[in-house]
Amino acid sequence: MSDSPAARLQQLFESHRLTPTQRRIAHSMVRRAADAPFLSSVELAELAGVSQPSVTRFAVALGFDGYPALRRHLREVAPAESEAGKDAYNEYQQAVQAEIENLRHLSELLADPAAVERAGRLLAASRPLPVLGLRAASSQARGFAYFAAKVHPDVRLLDEGGTMLADRIDAARRAGASALLCFALPRHPKEVVEALAYARSAGLTVVTVADSAFAPVAGHSDLLIPAAVGTGLAFDTACAPMLLGRVLLEAMCDDLPDAQARLEEFDARAAARGLFVE
């Protein structure tokens, strides 16, 4: 298993039952995993958008006497790392290296494929299959829906918010949908949390790809598979969530008996139309 800062924090937090506020703090620490052992309680509170006493209660919930004890623990378990090696990379290279680490962590998560296989079965069985992603996550949802439509008979992309979002979820449910796939990335729109709560109340099973197991959508997901985003640049990078989306596509295809036939049919039509440049 990886000894990455994010992996260590995930393991520490996942063994405890946390409140929504505490999950928010945990999520902020995972996103800033390399810096977490050196953040003051005030800095962490500002980062998570909570009060300083909430940070103290969070540390106590994890079994520590207070936040200083938690921070000491994180410093003690942090692997010795060569700062000179870090300094050898410029800021762009550091962002790439961070994404490589995110992909490595995703690979380790997929060593047990049970969650992905379950997700594939749920997505394949849902007719239609609504795919939700708003704002930063809209490109992930759109990419999944584009490829999924080649093998799944009815994919419905939900990439726009507003008052009609609930209507479209209702329409999918009435048409026979049994599951909804959501891509949820920072910053998490309130609309996504509300949409997932509504989808579950309508009877849909929610499968979510999120940047952390402690993301705000966790409490409204039946199956959440995390894939971290990179935070080293001005805007987050999402290589791991994109790759996880393709992995879910593969798992879904495995449970669609006519997936290969549909792909071959599409290729034949595309060739007949001269759709692609050879």
From TrEMBL:
TM regions (residue ranges): none
InterPro entries: Homeodomain-like_sf, HTH_RpiR, RpiR-like, SIS_dom_sf, WH-like_DNA-bd_sf
Stated name of the protein: MurR/RpiR family transcriptional regulator
Domain HTH rpiR-type span(s) in chain numbering: 5-81
GO molecular function per UniProt: carbohydrate derivative binding; DNA binding; DNA-binding transcription factor activity
GO BP of this protein: carbohydrate derivative metabolic process
Species for this entry: Streptomyces lunaelactis
Organism superkingdom: Bacteria
PROSITE patterns referenced in this protein's UniProt entry, alphabetically: HTH_RPIR
